[in-house]
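**Fold tokens**
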Amino acid sequence: MKKTINIIDVFLSAPSDTSKECSIVLEIAKEINEIWSRYLKIQFDISYYKDYRPTFESDAQIAVNKQMPENIDLYFSVLWNRIGTPTPRAISGTVEEFEIAYKKHQQNSNSIDLMIYFKKQNKNKIDIDLDQVEKVNKYKQHISTLGSFYKSFDTSDEFRNIVRSHLSLFIQSFSKKLKLNLINQSDTSEPLLQIVKYKSEYFKNFKLMKESHYKLNNLMNNLIDKQDNLTRLVLSRSPMLKRAIANFDRSVTMISTQKINELKNTTNYRKNAYASFSKYLMWLVGINKFEYTELDKLYYSLKNYSVTLNKLISSISSCKTVPDKLLRSNAIKYKTSRLLKRALVATEIELVNTLNENNSIVSLLNYNLNKISSFNH
């Protein structure tokens, strides 16, 4: 029996510094196609300039424009520190591609959707071009005035989970627009099994991640207590200072090594937890099987965990200057100071990454809960 597959034409537009993020988009689209083309009879076909054939035109961007899909269903763009190379018609190829897509959107807003993402800039990078950064920020302001609701992200892991969820939501919305049945209701066994699988994986890894965070917190509190004690001895010029310094050196070496080893576990648990959750949400979207009470409970649980993470991050931030103070007062060696700072900074980075991913999932849950609520009313 012949089966019709509906194609979603996607144009992927991005400057060269977001090639990693573009690879993630291609990877997630392939993952969704493998899963949902069977059930939804829809799949993404992504057009990306790196796949275009070489040719001759009046300029390189014209060659790209001519190979863009004639009818784009989704314009997907991701930017970071660069706006891109100027063209005779726009400040960059990416901006010119946006203008083509936006013009189509103005002509018929139902014919094309525009999803634009910005990776948060790192102005401390040695090789950063500040002129390019300024142009990206001006472009961001410009599309805001046109009505763009863009999304910002910090890390590639966070972006991966956002893209998986957003493309899943888009494919659901596209299915409704075509008035397709999302899934054959007599063939839900595999999707339900996948929902159970990813839900189970999420809860397991989230629990392990939380336990690892508590271990990190205990190690951190231990270090902070030792720092405070040494600081007091330094200020009081205690005769016990020499022995305290020797003990502190040994403790910092031991605790910092434990923290760095624990961080590796935490990072793996985090990646597995949020990847499992975004896949769980993807299957829920595909089968359109949302349980409001369950999602609401998850929403408040994760929202509360964001509060906990903020407290942990604040606690670490307040201690980051202590190693330098102790070093300046000759209370600790340079090697000890560097090891302590490394442990503090690495822990802070991991917790900030966790907070960003957690907040992204909270936003996605909030979006779906509002959708269910409006539908019920």
